[in-house]
């Protein structure tokens, strides 16, 4: 198979596998139960999940998250996340896109 077609097939597989991982993780079922319902071997699911995560790590890009250190707004902090020496505070009203970018960045640390 020509290299371009291999890349297209791999991207299609990763898109489908990503959808499956998302569906499983948000289903409320255990991985085993979800896999049984969808006739997928648990080992196959874990392989696909690992491939999706590796692809996400390769494609992750630097995202600038504006930070402010205004001490008068500490009561607006909804959550604080610390990974190693990096600490991020999430303020009330943060939108989903900002949270997703923040967690992608923290995951890569």
Automatic annotation (TrEMBL):
It comes from the Bacteria. This is IS66 family insertion sequence element accessory protein TnpB.
């Amino acid at each position: 198979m020509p290299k371009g077609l291999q890349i297209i097939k791999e991207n299609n597989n990763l898109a489908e596998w990503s959808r499956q991982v998302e569906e499983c993780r948000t289903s409320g079922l255990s991985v085993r139960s979800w896999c049984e319902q969808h006739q997928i071997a648990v080992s196959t699911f874990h392989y696909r999940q690992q491939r999706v995560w590796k692809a996400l790590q390769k494609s992750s890009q630097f995202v600038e998250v504006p930070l402010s250190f205004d001490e008068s707004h500490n009561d607006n902090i909804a959550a604080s996340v610390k990974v190693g020496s990096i600490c991020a505070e999430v303020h009330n009203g943060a939108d989903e896109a900002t949270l997703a970018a923040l967690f992608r960045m923290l995951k890569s640390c």
